[in-house]
Amino acid sequence: MDRKKILTKNISLGVLYKFLSLILVFTTIPNLLNYLEVEQYGIWVTIFSLINIVLFIDGGIGNGLKTKLSEAISLKDYKLAKTYITTAYISIGFISIILFLIGSLFIYFLKLQNVFNTDVLTETELKAILYVTLFLVVTGFVLNLFKSFYYANQQASKVELAMMLYQLIILLTVFILLNFFTRNLLYVAILYGGSNIIISLIFTLIFFKKNKKLIPAITFFSKNRVKDLMGLSLGFFIIQLSMIVIYTTDSLIITNLLGPAEVTNYDIVYKLFQVIITISVIAQDPFWALYTDAFQKKDFDWIKKTIIRLNKLFVLFSFFIFILYIIAEDVIKFWLQRDLLLENSLLFYMSFFILIRVYGIIYMSFLNAIGIIKLQMWLYVFGALINIPISIFLVKYFNLGSSGVILGTIVSILGLSVFLPFQTYKILKKQF
To answer: What is the pTM assigned to this prediction?
Structure first.
């Protein structure tokens, strides 16, 4: 199947599955909010974002595997592909054990009521929730490698199908909790972590059933391939660490400075606007393997035309972001069937944040696929260094509330949307 047909199929199915996922997510949130109420919902959002930091700390192996496996499959070197898969599993498994031990120590020694700025849950309850969430997330961390398999095999839409089914399980179980169980944040932790493990297992087994020659075997583990994956991925790993600081600390900063209830307001606004990023990512994900394949085969004309088309699509995204900013408050009220006290500044800065992220993704997708990430890495490192201090400064000294946190994030990532387009066009110009 040629690239155009693969792309059309992946994007069409990906859009369908993601659209259904969004419906499920937007149906789940009001029910979860009704089950937990505002403060515990804010605590859960903060816990979930903190524990899910684990998903970023894979040594860059996830992204490295996606690229290397794509190359091996493109060359029909299935023995090498099997070696990459086996090596990735063992490496991620080892990292997961280390992360669980380190995370457990933090949970044991931290005064969690102070961290989360709350007394609605006891210290013992908070620790139990965090231990359970951490264990389930690190287990799912290993199994989540299935996503790289499908991306590398030019089946990005299968990942979206998996996520849709995950959201369906979440919705059904939240509905059961709301109607048949008393409020308990531990139940929510088990349901989110357990559902991810179930879906990951199912899709992993399906992939290997259809690709038996790629089933991992301990004898195919290679120390050299670890270096190979991480050699390519060291930059990815540094980027991931920087992204942790930039994108996953917002909830913690807000809950610590302003309280968990304010996290709920921030999270609801973010989830509404995240629809635009989600649609953008659907359009970008299938390109990773295709960019790698095209760059290997020196089909630079196709790459250039593709990026031009994506820039035209960005103009359409910009229009939708503006419309969403105008109607956001009414949409949220209709969606949640309750009033939230939202600052217009939060809506405005969130709109601008989404705008620059969507634009930056166009170029990050291409540069990541061909392994040219040094400039991106340093821009992310710079952003990570300034993100938390700027966010705290804007909240404490300018009294911007949660708007100051998203403004701090904007300042931290703005350079990516300014410099990466120049780098991309410079690379392509050299090829003609």
So the answer is: 0.84
